[in-house]
Specification:
The structure is a homodimer.
Chain A (H helix, E strand, L loop, with lengths): L7 E5 L3 H12 L3 E5 L17 E4 L1 H9 L3 H5 L3 E3 L1 E5 L5 E5 L7 E5 H14 L3 E3 L3 E6 L4 E5 L5 E5 L2 E4 L6 H7 L5 E16 L14 E5 L4 E6 L5 E8 L12 H11 L1 H4 L5 H7 L3 E9 L2 E2 L2 E3 L2 H4 L8 H18 L4 H31 L5 H16 L7 H7 L5 H20 L3 H4 L5 H6 L2
Parallel strand pairs in A: 1-2, 1-12, 2-8, 5-14, 12-19
Antiparallel strand pairs in A: 3-7, 4-7, 5-6, 9-10, 10-11, 13-16, 13-17, 14-15, 15-16, 18-19
Helix pairs in contact in A: 1-4, 1-10, 2-10, 10-11, 11-14
GO molecular function, one term (chains A, B): kynurenine 3-monooxygenase activity
Pfam families (chains A, B): FAD_binding_3
Protein name (chains A, B): Kynurenine 3-monooxygenase
Chain lengths: ~450, ~450
């Protein structure tokens, strides 16, 4: 019967979601302890293992606003107003993400995480690093934790929240409990990070305020800007087949392939060969599971719904989880017994929707954005959006800029719009005639 | 480079599949050690935890023939030639499973398992009981095993085979390795075993040579005969909702519900209330994963593809795995390096197919078998089978009696047949006119 806010809550994971959630809960008056397997990323000897920058958009910003950190963090973020596509010859084409003033933000993962941890500590959250969760007892609500001296301690809490990511240790206890549905699957592509250094005087060597894409049908390279003038590049590339990480297996083959495929990028990357050979190749997992709650233990963020990065929504979805949970704490007057089931029922369809959207968007990013018919489709949809700004909102906009539309709603509406647009695009001579379409009638089909 | 048969193979799990596989491999000349978490079921103090009897059909029998045990085991099996349906008033209707002479077999799980272990030990397989696999190292091909004295030992093998069931410990090592796709999901129903005792002089109180079904749309009770005149009953029933294990929560409610719903069965079950209240309620999981092979470790049987029991194929599929593996050992001249990838590529579609067939068949068993239109459909299909015995084989027959047809093939063909039958059944007045159908034309649609 966890009703009042004097309870002691353990959060597993001091990543982005765990740190943000600790602030929300501490502000409500809970006693909050955060246990992190890795060391403190604020210490000098910390070695990171995750992606360098992230796309922060409206859903994430909304949560940061609620905890009072949005302004501070926007200052270190770089707005990206659209996609800049690079073809094989280095020709550029540009596509805005939304209307004037709508943009996503490139932000440093570590800067964001550190800001969240600092704020959390300032208001009294206790962080414990190098603490490995060895066992979670879902009946007793206890954690058995191994500290850096290999000492094991069993600790009891009123509530445990697993915000410990795609490979959550808390979730392991769920997985071996009865009637827990669980799925993990990998796409055929892995990724490798590369970089473009800053130009003279920390200038940006590519357009600063865009997300750059080198779409190559079955794979792609992308680049996000960093405040110091550098770009972090990510190559999403098949593990097997031709071409693939497996097939390009010599320095010479790497050199030839990259120079031929991404000539304008490679020209700006003096270290690309070294980076390609030395940086790890990582895999991309989707995790789905249910329930997210067993007794007094909850899974949240990637621990509950890890997704691929192609919609730039992983962190934003996790932050939205925290905001939704906080709203439910208001609604349920901090009665966890009723709010935990309500939380998972409400959020599960949204987690499933963004997982599917993220998988689908990979095909859009790597292939369709270079497709003439697809660009015309986007143009027609932009026109519909302009004429009927509340009735026809393109799916990308719903997901990215309309935080009041649930992911599941964005998914369903987007599917409906896609069906209508398929019909529109099937009309003969649509390239010539599209401006004379009866847009009223099209919106009427919704 | 495991080429010749002097290698040492560890099998995890002394269940049906592990024991059968150990015989196959020992007969080829391998040194085979079987490690079982539980005690020896042949010892007097063994407490079982699994279902009491199973349906053995052609695929399983084929494997038992290959290891020379089919005749011995058929003697303790009871042929079931068809389904005997019991309605709410105790009225019976009967549906044969196939043609004259085609039947499935009710067999005791423990008797079958013991026969396999005895044979394996006779030919030199080493069994080790109460051995818990703590860790599997997929790189080094080692098992860290905890014995009953809590002593841990790391053992190295040339090959490790995980035949340790739906909750395989070997599979845990796969799950935490990179790029392993894994899914476990539970159906909404659980099951509980009940029993009908033998009549005077060990007589059978229901028709002996049938599988009995009490189909009740959203749930069902089934009964399989045992050699001692008893029947083992299994109630498949929702966990939640109304009615469900949760809703029938008092002795009085259980009594009223069972007496009303299964009157003829309950009349033969003096202990039904005690059994209902004391026997455990178990859940039903489906497990899918891939790959089944990492280096020199292989998953097989339920460890690779656990399914629900509604097609009576779980054990048969596992036995078929062993037979297919043995065939590939012949083909590849015991070169495991090439045969392991070949095995998983060949068998994965069959594992997926039988998983889906088993899920689909639950609806057929609990609901459709009591449906008039469905029975007519079966009658028309039986006619097609009679007229075109090689072209139109009903799906149930393909799966159960035609061991040369792969599960994946039976699934695809069955889907095609279903589509044609949907069209046939949609004809007006089909109940009256079906005997005048142009059966030649129908088969021509295949």
């Amino acid at each position: 019967m966890l009703r009042n806010t004097s309870k002691h809550i353990a959060i597993a994971g001091a990543g982005l979601v765990g740190s943000l959630l600790s602030i929300y809960l501490k502000k409500r008056g809970y006693s909050v302890s955060v246990f992190e397997r890795r060391g403190d990323m604020r210490s000098s000897d910390y070695v990171g293992g995750r992606s360098i920058n992230l796309a922060l958009s409206n859903r994430g910003i909304r949560a940061l606003e609620e905890v009072g950190l949005a302004e501070e963090l926007k200052r270190i973020a770089i707005p990206m107003h659209g996609r800049m596509m690079h073809d094989m010859k280095g020709n550029l084409s540009y596509q805005a993400y939304g209307k004037e003033g709508q943009y996503i933000n490139s932000i440093s993962r570590s800067a964001l995480n550190i800001a969240l941890m600092n704020e959390a500590e300032t208001i009294g959250v206790q962080f414990y690093f190098e603490q490995k969760i060895e066992k979670t007892d879902l009946e007793k609500t206890t954690l058995t934790i191994e500290d850096k001296h290999k000492k094991f301690t069993e600790k009891k809490f009123d509530l445990i929240i697993g915000a410990d990511g795609a490979f959550s240790a808390i979730r392991d206890a769920f997985r071996i409990s009865d009637r827990f549905d669980y799925q993990q699957f990998y796409i055929q592509h892995g990724y490798k990070e590369l970089s473009i250094p800053a130009g003279p005087g920390n200038t940006f060597q590519l357009e600063k305020n865009a997300l750059h894409i080198w779409p190559r049908e079955s794979f792609m390279l992308i680049a996000l800007p960093n405040p110091d003038g550098t770009f972090t590049l990510t190559l999403f590339f098949p593990f097997e087949g031709n071409p693939s990480f497996a097939s390009i297996d010599s320095t010479q083959a790497i050199k030839e392939f990259l120079e031929k495929t991404f000539p304008d990028a490679v020209a700006l990357m003096p270290e690309y060969l070294k980076e390609f050979e030395q940086n790890p190749t990582s895999s991309l997992v989707t995790v789905k599971c249910y329930p997210w709650v067993k007794n007094n233990t909850l899974l949240i963020g990637d621990a509950a719904h890890a997704i691929v990065p192609f919609y730039g929504q992983g962190m934003n979805a996790g932050f939205e989880d925290c905001r939704v949970l906080n709203n439910l704490l208001d609604e349920h007057k901090d009665n966890w017994e009723t709010l935990l089931p309500a939380f998972q029922q409400l959020r599960k369809p949204d987690g499933d929707a963004i997982a599917q959207l993220a998988l689908d968007n990979f095909i859009e990013m790597r292939d369709l954005v270079a497709d003439k018919e697809f660009l015309l489709r986007k143009k027609i949809e932009a026109k519909l959006y302009e004429l009927f700004p509340t009735q026809w909102i393109p799916q990308y906009s719903m997901v990215t800029f309309h935080e009041n539309i649930r992911y599941s709603e964005a998914y369903t509406k987007g599917q409906k719009q896609k069906k209508i647009m398929d019909e529109v695009m099937a009309q003969t001579n649509i390239e010539e005639t599209w401006e004379r379409l009866d847009f009223n009638e099209i919106v009427g089909r919704l």
